[in-house]
TrEMBL record:
<dbReference type="InterPro" id="IPR046341">
    <property type="entry name" value="SET_dom_sf"/>
</dbReference>
<protein>
    <recommendedName>
        <fullName>SET domain-containing protein</fullName>
    </recommendedName>
</protein>
<dbReference type="InterPro" id="IPR044432">
    <property type="entry name" value="Set10/Efm1_SET"/>
</dbReference>
<dbReference type="InterPro" id="IPR050600">
    <property type="entry name" value="SETD3_SETD6_MTase"/>
</dbReference>
Length: 468
């Protein structure tokens, strides 16, 4: 790592430790060729780190979020002698949602530079003038975004873009109307930067704050605010990169502190990972700006299919979309997909011909849509709950309709996808988009191939010709 960068991270470490945070003495920040700034066991360490060690601890006093905008400073558990005022005028605070206020507060602290309490942290973040180091797909140039056309990511990018534009326009207008000092400096570029920083680095409060700390911070918020209405930046802790196979847990027992406990062993020189959750490559691309490559032991490639049911009919924790997987859901390498197979009945549904790569929830969703009688659905449920390997005759027609429906959907999406030609990748964003497209295409082709082999020949001929 360059001397200037080493100095920045040394300053961050000292500042964080002065305010209750900690980095394991055997760990260091280094620059990796692939993952950028990362955590690793020092090559000079005398021994490996056994599972169960605390890699990083972050105290609530150095976190940055909407909460800090409410009090215009760091969170303190001690009683305050003076009245705490918000960072922005009352009209701004009451007319914007918490996540927007949190982003504007990050911009405010960035503009203060070394006068900011958080400058040791902010100075180690990707800087606004280096757009290539922080831009997520939603804020890419239009030519780069076009490389994602006809994929799940492209649909989401357009939705996010519209939200960013609307949020910024409304909030900036309010600052101008009240003639907030320096309102002109709150540019759209800085808001996009803050959006990307929070999206790619923040944590859900309900996961990383103890109940006592949650109660304390919620006591600072307006009535009706929920703990996950905003997200929290955790300096030092957010340097850890993602590995979906890494085992970890949060320890919130130390007063006001969140500890990342790593349950894997690491040798000297090895990178130490966090785990951002079981997210598909589409989700990683949108939220973090990277995708995972395919290996023999792990793939992260899935196509998202929206539920046919209106959102208003879904239960609180019910999924709004389903996955089509590159490999069968039963394959050990389908880590994210396997996490959504909840029961033996789900496993049975995946054993149906042509449907091993289709999320069981989608199979049930389609069965409800194409069944001609309640008896067919009852027969499918009865078979899924049983142990008989052969498929009863009364299910053949329902199974064929499910296969045809999902086959037609996949083929339609594939044809639209192939209609987009990417002549060349001219920059880093486009190269990432092309890699994503290649892996996305492989999912559609694998699903079509399996469905083709499952359908009877005359239906297969119609499917290939696009007549069905």
């Amino acid at each position: 790592m360059k001397e200037f960068d080493q100095s920045r991270f040394d300053t961050l470490k000292r500042w964080a430790q002065d305010h209750g945070a900690a980095l394991h003495p055997s760990l260091e920040v280094y620059e990796d060729d692939v993952t950028g700034y990362s955590l690793r066991v020092k090559p000079s360490a005398n021994e490996a780190l056994a599972p169960g060690f605390c890699a990083v601890a972050c105290h609530v006093a150095i976190t940055l979020s909407y909460i800090n905008a409410l009090i215009d400073g760091p969170v303190s558990r001690a009683p305050q002698n003076k009245e705490q005022r918000p960072a922005f005028p009352p009209q701004f605070m009451s007319s914007n949602p918490p996540h927007v206020i949190g982003r504007f507060f990050l911009v405010k602290e960035y503009l203060k530079e070394k006068d900011s309490y958080w400058w040791p942290y902010i100075s180690t973040l990707p800087q606004p003038d280096r757009v290539d180091t922080w831009a997520l797909p939603a804020v890419w140039p239009e030519d780069d975004i076009e490389c994602l056309e006809e994929t799940n990511a492209h649909v989401a990018v357009r939705e996010i873009q519209a939200n960013i534009k609307k949020e910024y326009k409304h909030a900036r207008k309010l600052l101008k109307e009240v003639d907030f000092p320096g309102w002109q400096e709150y540019t759209q570029l800085l808001y996009k930067w803050a959006f990307c920083i929070f999206t790619s680095r923040s944590f859900r409060p309900s996961l990383i704050l103890s109940q006592e700390t949650q109660d304390h911070v919620l006591g600072l918020t307006p009535h009706g605010t929920k703990v996950d209405d905003f997200s929290i930046l955790q300096p030092l802790l957010d340097i850890g990169n993602h590995d979906p196979t890494s085992q970890y847990q949060w320890n919130l027992e130390v007063d006001g502190t969140c500890q990342l406990i790593c349950n894997n062993a690491y040798q000297p020189g090895q990178q130490v990972f966090n785990n951002y959750g079981l997210k598909s490559n589409s989700e990683l691309l949108l939220g973090y700006g990277f995708i995972l490559p395919v290996t023999d032991t792990l793939h992260n490639d899935y196509v998202h299919v929206k539920s046919r049911r209106p959102p208003s009919t879904l239960q609180k924790n019910e999924l709004q979309d389903f996955l089509i997987s590159l490999r069968p859901f039963s394959d050990p390498s389908s880590v994210a997909g396997r996490s959504r197979v909840f029961s033996q009945q789900d496993t049975r549904l995946n054993s149906l011909p042509g449907l091993s790569r289709i999320e069981p929830g989608l199979i049930r969703d389609l069965a409800s849509a194409v069944a001609t009688s309640a008896g067919e659905l009852a027969a499918l449920q009865h078979w899924a709950q049983g142990t008989e390997e052969s498929i009863p005759t009364e299910l053949h027609e329902l199974l064929e309709r499910i296969q045809q429906t999902i086959g037609a959907k996949v083929q339609f999406d594939y044809q639209r996808f192939k209609s987009i030609e990417i002549e060349s990748a001219d920059n880093q964003n486009q190269e990432l988009a092309v890699r994503y497209r290649n892996q996305y295409e492989a999912v559609l082709e694998a699903a079509m191939d399996e469905l083709s082999r499952a359908l009877v020949p005359n239906h297969l001929e119609k499917l290939v010709k696009g007549e069905q």
